[in-house]
Amino acid sequence: MNNSIPAKSLAKPTSTAANQLRVVRPEADNESGHSKQTHTTVPQSFSRESMVDARAVTKSYRRHKTSVAVLKGVDFSAEQGKMTAIVGQSGSGKSTLLHLLGTLDRPDSGEIHFANQRIDNLPARKRDAFRNHQLGMIFQFYHLLPELTLLENVIAPAMIGQSILSYFRNRSSIMKRAKELAELVGLSHRLHHKPSQLSGGEMQRTAIARALITDPKLLLADEPTGNLDQESGQSILQLLRNLNQESGLTIVMVTHDENIAMQCDALVRLKGGKVERLK
Amino acid sequence: MGMLWHPMDQECYFRILVDKLIGRHRRTVHAKERGMYKVLLCWRYLKTRWIALASIVSVTLGVATLIVVNSVMDGFTSQMQDRMHGILSDLVVETRATNGIAEPNWYIERIRARLGESVDGITTVVTLPAMMTFHHNGNAHTQQINLIGIDQSTYASVSDFSKYLLHPDNKRQLDFILKRNGYAPDREALQPSGWEYRSRVEQLKKDRQTELERYRQLQAKIAEEQQNQIAKDSQGLSDSTADQAIDPKANENGTQPLEANSDLLGGPMIQPVQNSGGGRVFDASIEQRIGIVLGIGIGSVRGRDSDGQLKDYFFIRPGDDVSVAFPNAGSPPRAIDELFTVVDFYESKMSEYDATFAFVPIEALQRARGMFDPLSKQGAVTSIQIKLARGTDLNSARDSLRDEFPPSESYVQVNSWRDTQGPLLAAVQLETTILNVLLFMIIAVAGFGILATFFMIVVEKTRDIGVLKSLGAPGSGIASIFLGYGVLLGSVGSGVGVLCGLAFVWKINEIARVLEWITGREVFDPTVYYFDTIPTVIHPFTIVWVSIGAVLIAILASVLPSIRAARMHPVEALRYE
Ligand SMILES: Nc1ncnc2c1ncn2[C@@H]1O[C@H](COP(=O)(O)OP(=O)(O)OP(=O)(O)O)[C@@H](O)[C@H]1O
Ligand SMILES: [Mg+2]
Prior knowledge:
Structural class of chain A: alpha/beta
Number of helices of chain B: 19
Shape of chain A: globular
Strand content of chain B: 5-15%
Structural class of chain B: alpha+beta
Oligomer: heterodimer
Number of domains of chain B: 2
CATH topology of chain A: Rossmann fold
CATH superfamily of chain A: P-loop containing nucleotide triphosphate hydrolases
Largest sheet of chain B: 6 strands, mixed, barrel
Shape of chain B: elongated
Bound molecules: adenosine-5'-triphosphate, magnesium ion
């Protein structure tokens, strides 16, 4: 990805993204010793169209000597350009799985692949770059930076992704893009407000705009409507739906809401540390 | 192109350092330098957390104190060095032998031959311990002094001697002759002095004597009349009444054995006979004895009056006579008593010298002590003082003279002025060093304050750190937010400290006065230091190292919290409530 963020649109042919990733594939092979072997043992069930998938992932947390297994061999795949919902009881490990998919944490065993490329064993710096460039994340509690204004929060990932020099070189295009996104989420009139001056729905919209600024391939959403009333929850969902349909953004969303889950293209349930495919 | 694997960029050394610190190993592919968010967040954290500035106040105070202490200590040192150097000649060739260096001219020739062009001035001196007696308010006072016989024509060429004399004429050239008046015109307390004062005192004495004479005659007359009366009344009782007549003259002389005095009332009535005088009566109102220049501390005390004003009180003035007892050059030495007339004061502002030095003409001492060689007609001296030409290396000149007069073969020692005052200067130096160490410890304590504050800020910002990580900020980037914060605070703290310190030094005397006014106590007592104002010297180098040190401490204190922030686990940070 070149430094200037294309200001044109959210739409981007998703097939080229996969091609780009294949181009740099050999480099990843050098990084991970057993990725070749992994490649040969790709199960049939993982299609080439898969954007992100977890393969036989386990994760347990240790607390006072006793170890709690949260994920016990999860196979999960989110298809490119689709909206996948993950449901499950509280404490079933939905957030844990999402964090693993987003490389915020590493599985105890198993693999995470992004566009058929293993990402869980990348060095920290590359995972940082991956999160910055390929991934957008939104959370139940929005997680905006309280010291920054709405606009600054939106451009934060772009600032993280490039040097001061290139930031200033591309500043006008970044700003233009940020304002477009603010427009898209319906907040162009509140650009210079601090998060504390925004409502929950507005904060979540800001978080969505922030997640989109680097033009990611994948959006991970952890209960994005969990903290909102019915109406604003529905409008957030509508926003995500539009993004998915109009620009082919792949979305993986954790939710408690059956209604929302039913609207998605695919639906999985986490139960007993395993994934059940419902739809 | 290359979305996942970032194109290589220039190496950033700071980043490597941070990576090393947080224990991460770099791979072959380097991420590019990213940055704007650090600057932005750093600045926002500073703007929203002014309380962190409180932790920096101690750095500010420490830096300011360091600058004040150093400039005052440097000021004292350099003033003291200047003064000492002004008082002492560069090199001294001296002997402890009672009869001194018998052939000074031979030594002077050898010194000149050895040092050549680098000799700027040379003089001979006789130094003796002595005891001075003077009268004040009818009492005799005795004081120990250092009697220094100088050659007034050359002595001023080896040191700043004449600069420290009070009379303007003596500042030009000392001649040991009492001046009419005009001693230090700016000092009111010294005003009755010189010939005017001397003749007035003598006149008073004479008047008193005449009065006493008249009184005595009157008494005698009364006694006579009484006797006659008694003789008339009853012839048999005349013997016993004659015994009751008191002789006032005998009484006075009994309590005042010495002639010279400075009091206006109640002094002795008999004029001293000049030592060398052959029977001629010495008239003190028009004649003076051999001149002596006293250190001002011998003849005066400095104190404060009831209004708190600084005031000198002189109990000896130019024009008074003093008597000095000193050993002669014989073996065993015997004490000689000589009378001198005070012709001026010497004020070097080094209390040690001002309280003991007394200068007299060298020939007078040589004659009185019997130091003249009957054959060569040369007077012996106890030391030869040398002033070196500008730019001459003091120590090498001294060493070369030590070569010339090796201790094993001669009875003289060669010392430089620094040698004699070395311990004092070294003590001041040591004091400065210890103060610096202590004050830096204070700044280090301030460093712990910063450490604690920063840890709290990092904990408070835990979730934001998780968010930044989820947005792809590397650990080093997050570390540099807090490091930058530390650098910023450290720089602000030490910058303000430097400004405060400089302002304090600039107005230090005014501040001392205000403090005096508030506390009612003397902050800087000129009676102790003989400085009218607090001397200060600001070395730019001191300011540079003090501020660099303070910023370094601030940086060191922010390193640990930064590492903690960098190492935070993103998921745990996000879960943090
Ligand atoms: N850092 C941790 N240490 C110990 N246990 C943990 C840790 N993080 C999560 N867990 C445990 O792992 C399990 C799964 O947590 P997770 O947050 O993934 O659940 P969830 O499905 O997202 O629940 P919810 O719907 O309430 O958000 C929980 O039982 C939780 O207690
Ligand atoms: Mg959860």
